[in-house]
Amino acid sequence: MDYYLGIDVGTSKVKSVLFDTHFNECLVASVDNLTLSPRPGYAEQDMQSLWLGVVSTLKTVMASPLLRQNTIRSIGITGQGEGVWLVDKQGHPIRNAILWSDTRSAALVEQFKQQPGLEEQLFAINGTPLLPCNSSLILSWLQQYEPETLAQADRFFFAKDWIRYQLTGESWLEISDTGTSLLDLQRGELSHEVLTQLGITNTARLFPPLLPSAAVAGHITAEAAQIIGLEAGIPVCAGALDVSATALGMGAVNHGDVYTILGTTCCTGIVCHDIKRINRKTRFVPHALSDNYINLFAMQSGTPNIDWALSQLAENSDFSHISTQLKAIPAGCGGVFYQPYINGERAPFYSPS
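RESULT FIELD:
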């Protein structure tokens, strides 16, 4: 039997999943992904450690008896969006990746928001308000505070593009990830006007060519095959932003379909065939299905609130034990009220504090 392999480069976890030809889930391997916070509001990940995490999950999958006399036909890939992942000419990381959950650019965002009409002008192009999570704003911050980093950089990636590069040796960007703040959504190409308005035209040289989600972006190299135990030459698709891939995977493909993700970010998406603004708090990203979009409401922090509660309030992380304790507490918690804003908020309102 042939199999398919999916890789999810998540913020909290990295997963590799084996599917049969009917796309039944046959095996899941996952490892925790460490987010670093060297200063308040900062969120970074070590790019090499992330790659080693992916390698670990792939090795676990490849050790399965299911694959002893069977082959993997192709590999799909998805991952956390936005942020900035930079490599030099040799393809080595220059610094830790800056994640979508990082808020260091909040002061810079506020400066741009004070420029009359700028946010509306950019929204008409890229479908997103000015937010610290935007790759474009993180690049602006780097240009102002770490110009030496950009000077050393040769290529810009998103998380899944970095992992795909490690697997294939090919450098590509992909439509749905790039469509979070850098793309002209109507034209489906990099927006030089966005770069100009934010004063980062010099970063245009960093962006590899764009591919649609379903395109083949390369094949497993001999080096990666030897490290992981895969066969060289397996095709790897361009992949998609995690929220876009989720919509496709659960069948949210029709205009008006609504879906919700409960993850590191908790978000609700509304599938649409055009870029029609529902209200001023919304944003748009491309769907993994070409010529479709997602009207997205993505919170800043989802399940990290649970992680915080477990670390601060619980005796251990055994959910069955905790559930038993919770059942003994009367509804209302004695008036205790919790707001899930451990690192600012971006939807349905924006407040970095």
